[in-house]
Amino acid sequence: MSNPYHFLSVPAKKAFDVTLSTPIKNFIKATFGDKEDYSASIDGFNSLRVEALLRSNYRDDCSKLFRYYDQLHAIEYKLPITENQIRIYFKWQDALVSGGGLFGGKQKTNGSWKLAYEKACVLFNIGHAYSELALAQNLSMDEQMKAALRYFQLSSGAFSFLKEYVNSYSLSDLSVDFEPAVLASLSWFMLGQAAELIHLKSSSFKSEIAAKVAAHASDCYREAYTSAKTESAKKIIPDNFINVMFVKHLLFQSKTEYHAGKQAQADRKYGLAVVRFTRAKEQAYQAASKCATAAFTPVLRANQDEINKSVDAARKDNDFVYHERLPDSKLIETILAQPIAKSLPATFPITPDFRDLFASLVPIALNNALASFNSKRAEIMNIEINRLREATNVLNAFLASLNLPAAIEDRGGREIPPSVIEKANQIKRQGGINTLEKMFNELPTSLTRNKEILDETIRMLDDEERGDTELRNQFKERWTRTVSSTLTVPLRSEARKYMDIIQNAINADKIVQEKYRMNRDSIVLLSKQTHEIANELPSASAAGALRDAFVVRELHRLMDTVASVKAEREVIEAELKNTDSDGVRARLIGAFQQGNHNDENSVVVHEIESIYAPLRQQVNESVSKQEQLVENIRRANQQFQNEKQGNASSEMREEILKNLARAYDAFQELLNNLKEGTTFYSDLTPLLLKFQNKASDFVFARKTEKEDLMKDIQRGIVGGNPSQPTKPPVYPPSTASSYPPVVAPPYPQQPLAPSTSGQPPATAPDGLALPYPTAYMQPFFPMPPGYNPYNPFFNMMAPPYPMAGAPQYPPQGYGVGKPQ
């Protein structure tokens, strides 16, 4: 459009190309596995950035820029793009020039690992794009003038929101464009231009309304100028912008008085009209005399001419016709602004038909909540199954000490009791002693493999940290990158957890091996054929005479009850292991979509309680029932022993039968332990390999970053200008302004931008500028699933293997080193 009113657009920041695909793919694979292929989405995201930031002319098409910002907004809870997780170094050139220096200022190039920095840069360019779109409109057409008005208001809202966003995430040191006073000034300036557009239609307004609209434009330009002249902003905002702000503030002051004079004439207050026109003339003259832009001078001259004609005519009419006394200029009423133009808040998504490329990707917070549910579920499952199995072990040990049920089945001689035959046959079907020995021999190999992976991972981290420390000591303050020990805190913590897990497993191995040693001979006997077992048993006198006695029938009934209790426990254990989390997942997703990002834990606790409270009650009832059952068995067995006659041979036979009963229970327990132990080591290996890859990626990225920094230092040494740590720009003291002071109330240290109804983002914690709340910072990674592979009876003696709910830690180091 033609621009006689000298509207200005905000310059754009320049983006540099970065690779998004590789680090994001690595993170998603490590965090969520290969269940879903996000390659197309990631490549689309990378292409969208290129199209939005590197190839777009915003005056022609802003749709890709808006879509890219919406996509950034959508992923900030899903992809933790930070220096120690998804490592992507975003590099941008400032839009504005940092002043100072012998040869003037220049645009600086800055960068950061923070997603918040990328969002802020894109949002700055959105403010620029809106201002460009406003300037592209033809103001002679009503519809396009309305569009220009809306674009200026949107631009003001974008810069106002950006000021709050920058403060929330401590980004002001990363770019002169993000200085709060600069953003406040730009926001007011865009709003002033919106108010000016409204004023262009003032010919259709009453003079009273036109004066209020002009006063609003003057106030906006005054606020923009005041912010621009603060110590932190005056060497950043271009001089031509500052000049236009000041001149337009004076211009619209004059127009305010001019319209107020017209209203005074309409109200037949001719003396007041003369005073108003006179003040307008003085302010119009100041505006024209202070203008440093030749193209804007004709508008200012036209304004002077219009006001001069009105002053002369009003003074002549009053002098010759009305003869009203002229009021004191200092006592006349101030015209209050009518804030018709308002900053429009930044609302998301900006694109009406926005489609999230990662819609199916679970947010980190939700992933953590689901992992927390699995962790708590596994913890409760282990506790309750431990209680059941421990109670069963106690019951088995008690029955074995009484030689039940073999004692009431034993017919004497060399005949083997039916229950012992059944136990021996079951052990043989399960592979007998050979199966146990084979599994025992395989465990050390699996353990050694896992230890070697973890030791090698720790060695890589130690070597990288040692090298970083040596170079830091060598180059002192020139070694400006983040200390390795700071970045590797999560990795080191994860490594310690894995070390503890492996040590606990080693301790559990020892306990299982001791149990095997104590029962091996009897297990070997049960693994033999029936006639071989019979040959090992001493003969004894028959107890068959008691088989029809009441006490024997009572013991048989009690043994049936024991079998029933064990069967019930198998059902309860199966229910404890097979609880379904689909409903929990759906409710967590619902809570997250409603914005209840802090409510996941309460949902987890509620679901855990609703699922496991009934099962926990069944476990309590089963354990309580066993207490009475044991007492009844003890009493009946005492009566049985009193009525039974025996000798030394029968006592020896009974002792061997007891040992065989204990050996059978031990075999089942050991077999279960070893199967789950083997599965545990097998599942732990890929987790450790994934952890090793994570550490390897981190070390490689740090190596690339080290090489780049070494090149910078060497170039600085050769050029005689050693590189220094990046510091916020320091501006020289201001000189006396060539503009007269603007009367305005005192301002806070950080000037306020025009308010919008948009909510500022959550403030990041001190010292931790994150693109999302810290509650969503820690993704969980499942440990090997399954029940504790070792006897719960020994849980007080040795920690169990880790379950699915073992504490997890975030991945780090996916990405590449800081680019040149």
Produce a short descriptive summary.
It holds the Pfam family ALIX_LYPXL_bnd. It comes from Rotaria magnacalcarata. This protein is mostly helical.
Strand content: under 5%
In N-to-C order, the SSE pattern is EHHHEEEHHHHHHHHHHHHHHHHHHE
Classification by helices and strands: mainly alpha
The overall average pLDDT, rounded, is: 80
How can the largest sheet be summarized? 3 strands, antiparallel
Number of domains: 3
Strand order of the largest sheet: 1-3-4
- Low-pLDDT parts are 100-104, 721-750, 758-817
**Overall body shape:** elongated
- Going by CATH, the homologous superfamily of the largest domain would be alix/aip1 like domains
Set out the fold topology.
Elements: E1 14-15, H1 21-32, H2 39-54, H3 63-75, E2 86-87, E3 90-93, E4 109-112, H4 115-135, H5 142-168, H6 180-199, H7 207-228, H8 239-266, H9 270-290, H10 297-322, H11 364-401, H12 406-409, H13 418-429, H14 432-475, H15 484-487, H16 489-526, H17 530-536, H18 550-577, H19 582-593, H20 600-643, H21 648-718, E5 814-815
Parallel strand pairs: 2-5
Antiparallel strand pairs: 1-3, 3-4
Helix pairs in contact: 2-3, 3-4, 4-5, 5-6, 6-7, 7-8, 8-9, 8-10, 9-10, 11-18, 11-19, 11-20, 11-21, 13-21, 14-16, 14-21, 16-21, 18-20, 19-20
